């Protein structure tokens, strides 16, 4: 039985992980819970799972260290949203604990430092994003030396067929109506702008140690194929399942074994799948992220920080939908060539990018 600690336990990733713990009490024991929410919700979950160790955001990074040291988990699910999830990932890996990673910022902001920690401690990093989980498993099956291209699928969000004039009039309520996934506000807005897909390109480039030129994005509105790889002989291989985050979370929790999740099994009969090129001119954040991934340095940090400020400004209805990409582009025009030497450098670059975006806002 694996002892699982869930960070972000009341969010969409954390809730899905806890649902799997309910379904598979023979496989998983909830050893600890962290939530950026009320003590009442956290206490209720702790009581349900018989979990003695909990943490809320007010306890800070010292509290996170105590939680990890007391709970002694076998694996940690990091479902914390935003840059706040980076330091918890660092603390997990320093202790040699396996990390089921849903926090994009860990990879986007500080991958070289994070990978070094994992290599040093012997901890495994298993991606939980549906796209990177698919790529992770497909590379495992096909062999890394045989992979010529990674193809990341994108739902295209709710506006993939909107004209430029329609995009200018989008409201927050429009943007929060994702056609296939149920997610938090920030990631739903990022899906609508294709910023989320851009972040996934950065992640794939780093997680799988490849060039941006070997990564492509295809719009797949049904969200049934979660990503593909092309082997050196030109053949495409896909991972297919219902769009349910419990699938990749289960895969991460059980890795390297494949265990029956008890979830709905996908059937091909009567199902249609369609694919389109992304509209890069109307959704420029995808190309800006690809540029950041290609340039290296602190460009990825700047992209992530600027997008977080701009997307939240849209959520707070301070700016229009199209202004999000304009703000990110302005911030990325600064000099981000310097490669962070340590985590202090990472946070300094993040702080600088946020300040520039706030000033432009």
Radius of gyration: 20 Å
Through-space gap between termini: 50 Å
- What profile does the largest beta sheet have? 6 strands, parallel
Net shape: globular
Number of strands: 10
Percent of residues in helices comes to 40-55%
Number of contiguous helices: 15
Describe the structure.
The chain is of the alpha/beta class and 361 residues long. Helices cover 47% and strands 15% of the residues. Strands 3-2-1-4-5-6 form a six-stranded parallel β-sheet, with helices on both faces. A four-stranded mixed β-sheet has the order 8-7-9-10, covered by helices on one side. A hairpin with a 4-residue loop joins β9 and β10. The mean pLDDT is 94.
List keywords for this structure.
4-stranded mixed β-sheet; 361 residues; 6-stranded parallel β-sheet; alpha/beta
In short:
This protein has 361 residues and is α/β, with parallel strands linked by helices.
Topology, please?
Elements: E1 2-7, H1 12-23, E2 28-35, H2 39-49, E3 54-56, H3 60-71, E4 75-78, H4 86-94, E5 98-101, H5 104-121, E6 125-127, H6 130-142, E7 147-154, H7 164-167, H8 172-175, H9 185-193, H10 195-207, E8 215-219, E9 225-231, E10 236-240, H11 246-254, H12 285-295, H13 299-315, H14 323-332, H15 343-360
Parallel strand pairs: 1-2, 1-4, 2-3, 4-5, 5-6, 7-8
Antiparallel strand pairs: 7-9, 9-10
Helix pairs in contact: 3-4, 4-5, 5-10, 9-13, 10-12, 12-13, 13-14, 13-15, 14-15
């Amino acid at each position: 039985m694996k002892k699982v600690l869930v960070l972000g336990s009341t969010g969409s990733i954390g809730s899905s992980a806890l649902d799997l713990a309910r379904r598979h009490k023979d496989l998983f024991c909830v050893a600890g819970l962290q939530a950026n929410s009320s003590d009442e919700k956290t206490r209720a979950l702790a009581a349900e799972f018989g979990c003695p160790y909990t943490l809320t955001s007010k306890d800070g990074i010292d509290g996170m260290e105590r939680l990890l040291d007391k709970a002694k988990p076998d694996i940690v699910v990091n479902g914390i949203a935003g840059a706040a999830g980076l330091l918890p990932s660092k603390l997990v890996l320093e202790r040699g604990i396996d990390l089921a990673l849903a926090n994009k910022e860990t990879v986007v902001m500080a991958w070289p430092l994070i990978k070094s920690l994992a290599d040093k401690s012997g901890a495994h990093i298993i991606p939980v994003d549906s796209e990177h989980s698919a790529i992770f498993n497909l590379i495992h099956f096909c062999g890394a030396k045989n992979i010529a291209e990674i193809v990341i699928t994108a739902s295209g969000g709710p506006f993939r067929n909107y004209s430029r004039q329609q995009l200018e009039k989008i409201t927050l309520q429009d943007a929060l109506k994702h056609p296939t996934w149920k997610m938090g506000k920030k990631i739903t807005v990022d899906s609508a702008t294709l910023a989320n897909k851009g972040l996934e390109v950065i992640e794939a480039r780093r997680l799988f140690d490849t060039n941006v030129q070997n990564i492509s994005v295809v719009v797949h509105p049904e969200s049934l194929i979660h990503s593909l790889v092309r082997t050196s002989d030109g053949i495409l291989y896909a991972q297919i399942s219902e769009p349910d985050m419990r699938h990749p979370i289960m895969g991460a929790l059980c890795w390297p074994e494949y265990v029956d999740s008890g979830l709905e099994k996908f059937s091909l009969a009567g199902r249609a799948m369609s694919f389109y090129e992304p509209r890069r001119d109307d959704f420029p954040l995808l190309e800006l992220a690809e540029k950041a991934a290609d340039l290296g340095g602190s460009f990825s940090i700047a992209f992530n920080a600027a997008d977080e400020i701009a997307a939240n400004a849209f959520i707070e209805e301070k700016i229009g939908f199209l202004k999000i990409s304009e703000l990110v582009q302005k911030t990325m025009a600064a000099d981000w060539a310097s490669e962070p030497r340590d985590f202090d450098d990472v946070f300094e670059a993040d702080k600088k990018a946020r300040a520039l975006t706030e000033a432009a806002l």
